[in-house]
Amino acid sequence: MRELPHWHTASARGPREHNADAVGAYAAAGGAGIVFALADGVGDHPNAAHAARTAAAAAARNPVGQGAVAAVLAAQRAVLASGWSGDCVLVVAVQTGEGYGIAWVGDARAYAWDGYTVRQVTKDHTLAQYFRDHDQPVTPRMEHVVTTSVRTAGVHEIGTATVTTGGLVLTSDGVHKTLSGPVMLDILGMPDRAAAELVRTAISLGGSDNATAIVVDPPSADLVTEKLRVAA
After folding, report:
1. In this structure, what CATH number is given to the domain that contains residue 175?
2. Spatial distance between the Cα atoms of 22 and 221, rounded to a whole number of angstroms
3. Per-residue pLDDT at 57
4. d(C-alpha 123, C-alpha 112), whole Å
5. What is the largest CA-CA distance in the chain?
6. Which strand (E) or helix (H) includes residue 120?
7. How crowded is residue 64: how many other Cβ atoms within 10 Å of its Cβ?
8. 98 half-sphere exposure, CB direction, 13 A CA radius
9. Which of 20, 143, 205, 209 has a 20 to 30 A CA-CA distance from 65?
10. For residue 223, is pLDDT > 50?
11. Which ranges carry the PPM-type phosphatase domain (predicted)?
């Protein structure tokens, strides 16, 4: 049985009526590793929160051996079958060897974290990013318009990446659209409370959305963290 990483998570409601972010993590007894999932509901509504919880739980429970894209598709099936009308974005990390396979839709992000540097490995599926890719002007509103989601994405639209550093950070846009890279890096230097500090700092700096983070410590980190099998 593979040794599970140390990890910690935090979430806080920003200036919204509902916290529509959700996280999930699951390692089957005697299994090959762990699946992490972070979902962010589209909109400030109970339907959005339900979609995020449903997606995060379904993705995290998908077998490790099937990979990250399969976990996103499992989340999609669960959301479509739920009978609720909400939607969400999602990022999933599946443990593979010493690293992680990543899959995502929308603007939830994954970063590689080796204890010294942090590097974004996902690319936002937003209208703003689409326009940047085509060398067109971008307006602030475009940053918040996603071009893929759990409910709508086709298989070919799911983004994929690989993290080989052994450490990992997953964030909702309430974190990464408020905090700069250097600020995130400074906070990750406090790994025993990094997830909580990412969220607290994003809210305190005036973030306009809910803020959620999962931090998976690099294997070399000398830390004491709470190891949970499932969080939602």
Report:
1. 3.60.40.10
2. 26
3. 98
4. 13
5. 51
6. strand 118-120
7. 21
8. 8
9. 20
10. no
11. 6-218
The 3 state secondary structure assigned to 21-61 is EEEEEECCCCCCCCEEEEEEECCCCHHHHHHHHHHHHHHHH
Give 159-227 as a 3 state SS string: EEEEECCCCEEEECHHHHCCCCHHHHHHHHCCCCCHHHHHHHHHHHCCCCCCEEEEEECCCCCCCCCCC
The parent domain of residue 43 ranges over 8-216
- Tokens 């962010």 correspond to 40
- Per residue in 90-106, pLDDT tens? 999 999 877 899 999 99
Q: Tell me: pLDDT of 44 over 90.
A: yes
pTM of the model: 0.92
Strands across the sheet containing 118-120: 7-12, 211-216, 168-171, 109-113, 118-120
Number of structural domains the chain divides into: 1
- Residue 107 in any domain: the answer is yes
Dump pLDDT digits (tens) for 154-173. 999 999 999 998 899 999 99
Place of tokens 């450490």: 167
Phi, psi at 228, each rounded to 5°:
-115, 145
Give the HSE-up count for residue 5: Cα atoms under 13 Å, Cβ half-sphere.
30
- Pairing assessment for the beta strands 99-105 and 88-96 based on DSSP bridges: antiparallel
How confident is residue 65, by pLDDT bands cut at 50, 70 and 90?
very high
Q: How many CB atoms lie within 10 A of CB 69?
A: 18
